[in-house]
Design goal:
A five-stranded parallel β-sheet has the order 2-3-1-4-5, with helices on both faces. The chain has 13 helices and five strands. The chain has 277 residues and is α/β, with parallel strands linked by helices. The protein has a domain at 22-52 and 157-276: Rossmann fold (3-Layer(aba) Sandwich).
């Protein structure tokens, strides 16, 4: 079935504190191999470079440029110059955008005790070797810093993110998933891509590469992992919906062009709904 519809939401009375900037982000999520990256890139192209929806890298640059006024006049030319170098420029952009708001970021983090506890647990358990698990905590903190940057985005700019904090929760241990998705900073919206485990396994087998968690798995083990991932994102969808997050489901087995146009249209309409509300 080709399904792509908004799901009714019911805000939770016992919600966690909001994380500044999280509402500016639209996350694309789903099991590895489901096709979310292809849909994300196609939707981004369909919306166009002048759309209010931008990539995370573009968001960092826009946040940095919006913060130039807080840099001394003598240093501004140097910051502007490094923006021409993609990798170095991005580093300076991120540094600039948080330079004057570290205290605000710390205050925001202090309110996220439950989620940071989940991140710490995730860094010790779940899939992957010890080194891969050890690297997760700084990655999660980096994601939180990105959300903080979005508070500096100009106007109504939104960020499309195919590998955000909701997506990262699928590798958490089964006993930790409900706590994780109940405390993860709420994005502005979530696009959940679904497909049958058989289709996912076939795609993973034919694309010639596997993520770290799938290395060495047989086809039957890969199928079981895909079923488990699908169940994880079904749980995430339910919990995010309870917390008032707009969730859109898209059939990852539908033609890419069809899914792309319908997701793009939903995102365009989402802006109209927000402005009308």
């Amino acid at each position: 079935m080709n399904l792509l519809t908004p799901i009714a939401v019911t805000p939770s009375a016992t919600d966690v504190p909001a994380f500044p900037g999280a509402e500016r982000q639209v996350e694309f999520v789903g099991p590895p191999g489901v096709g979310k990256s292809a849909i994300y890139h196609a939707v981004r192209d369909r919306l166009g470079s002048q759309s209010i929806y931008r990539t995370a890298q573009e968001g960092r640059f826009l946040a940095a440029k919006a913060s130039l006024g807080k840099v001394s006049p003598l240093r501004r030319p140097a910051y502007r110059a490094v923006f021409q170098l993609p990798r170095v420029g991005e580093f300076y952009a991120r540094r600039l955008a948080v330079a004057s708001s570290e205290d605000t970021l710390r205050q925001a983090l202090q309110l996220q005790g439950a989620f940071l506890e989940c991140c710490s647990e995730l860094a010790q358990t779940g899939f992957g070797d010890p080194l891969a698990r050890f690297s997760r905590l700084p990655i999660m903190l980096d994601e939180l810093r990105d959300l903080h940057l979005w508070t500096r985005l100009p106007g109504n700019v939104q960020v499309l993110q195919p590998d955000g904090l909701v997506q990262k929760g699928w590798v958490s241990a089964p006993q930790s998933r409900e706590a994780y998705f109940s405390s993860v900073p709420k994005p502005g919206a979530v696009v959940v891509v679904t497909a049958s485990p058989d289709v996912i396994v076939d795609r993973l087998r034919t694309r010639g590469r596997r993520i770290h968690a799938h290395v060495g798995l047989s086809d039957s083990e890969l199928h079981a992992a895909s079923v488990q991932a699908a169940e994880t994102f079904a749980l995430a969808t339910e919990l995010l919906r309870r917390r008032g997050v707009p969730v859109f489901e898209v059939d990852g087995e539908a033609p890419l062009s069809e899914s792309t146009e319908r997701v793009a249209e939903l995102l365009r309409n989402r802006v109209a709904w927000q402005e009308a509300g």
